[in-house]
Amino acid sequence: MIRSRSIRPPGRLLPLILASTAVVLAGCSGEERFPDRPIMLICPWSAGGGTDTVSRKVAAMLEQDLGVPVNVVNATGGSGVTGHTRGALAPPDGHSITMITVELNMLHWRGLTNIGPDDFRPVMLLNQDAAALFVPADSPWGSISDVRAAVAEAPRSLKASGTAQGGIWHVSLAGWLDAEGLRADDVLWIPINGAGPSLDALMSGGIDMVCCSLPEASSLMEAGRVRCLGVMAEARIPDFPDVPTFGEQGSDWSMGGWRGLGLPLGVPEDRAELLVSAVDRVIRSEDYLGFMEHTGFNVSPAPPGEFREIMEQFDRQMGDILMGEAFQSVRRTRYGPMIFPIVILALLGASLAVLLLRGSLRRDPGAPRLDRAGLARMGLVVLFVVSYMALAGQVGYLLSASTLLLGMLLALGVRWPVALATSAALVPATYQIFAVGLRVPLPWGWLGW
């Protein structure tokens, strides 16, 4: 006798079906929500400077508007190459946004990178600031004429800073020197990543003057620790009415920079528009405007289309300036960012040559030059280089190189204590040589940039 299987009444299944459907729909809606995780705001310059100050204010207000954490990451190094490159190459999912600066119009002209304005989708221009020249409060110089006379009397004896080599404040000072009939490098420029650290060096006596914007030095001016000799603007800055322009002192020279927000290319249109709207709300708020007024930063917002035109205009201007004969000393750098991969490729070629040579010396004339083990070793080295290229930008140089080198040495049969010691010593030493000594930008990734 066959018993029929009991069938649960539909009434009992209906609540279960409805609950399951609700869970599925909730999951789908969660996947479509943007932003659904923290946003990274990449700042190419050091903490304490003007760009970092504006970045942190914008990040705090975007966090309130979007409802997710917005974390500022100072990706410094390479005269701005590191931060701008990381921002341009970030995943185009809308969760990475970059505080791009006028150096984006300069780096490619200097041959430091191929990243330029066309590698970003403009979100919003935030402000533009003119350059200004600062000296310690007890400096004997009372005007830019005094500085000019001191430079003319002893070329290359005075030191200045304000940003990295070839940055906007460096070009501003070098341009003024050239306009005054002096050489653009008659004042030694000390590369420091940002106005904040540069002003610290000025206070400690490490340098003689700083070129940066007025807001970046406003607190030191109010404390009476620095004096501003002049601002490179066509008219006096309303928030600093006592600071004369260079034009008022007989110098026909003006220069400044800009900063704004940009996204990597390829961000979906709906996400990009959502971020543009959020930034627009932030920069129109009383909180933001009050902050900018209190700190002395110029407020000159521009929407994406207008921002694009401004970047293109600056790019043409910087091309004319930096490619001119007078600025060859500013353009010239000893080492560019390509030196590291070139050295790695050279070492790879040398390693392969050694493997080939050892294989040919150890074998009979009629035997194959490389057996499977030799080919495997060669492939392992190539795999190491390819894996580093794929991982370094996201993970960072120290972590990716250490892990991959350790794995390669172990795979080649090196005893693990020797492999561990070699990796622990070689990778940090290489970083010190390239990133610190030669100032080649290497990514930090998960360790903080």
Automatic annotation (TrEMBL):
Alphabetical keyword list: Membrane, Receptor, Transmembrane, Transmembrane helix
Q: Cite the Gene3D superfamilies for this sequence.
A: Bordetella uptake gene, domain 1, Periplasmic binding protein-like II
Pfam families on file:
TctB, TctC
Q: Which CDD domains match?
A: PBP2_Bug_TTT
Q: Which InterPro entries match?
A: BUG, Bug_dom1, DUF1468
Listed transmembrane segments: 338-357, 378-399, 405-429
Q: Which residues form the DUF1468 domain?
A: 331-443
Query: PANTHER family, per this entry?
Result: BLR1237 PROTEIN (PTHR42928:SF5), TRICARBOXYLATE-BINDING PROTEIN (PTHR42928)
- To which protein family does this belong? Belongs to the UPF0065 (bug) family.
Q: What is this protein called?
A: Tripartite tricarboxylate transporter family receptor
Q: Which organism is it from?
A: Tautonia plasticadhaerens
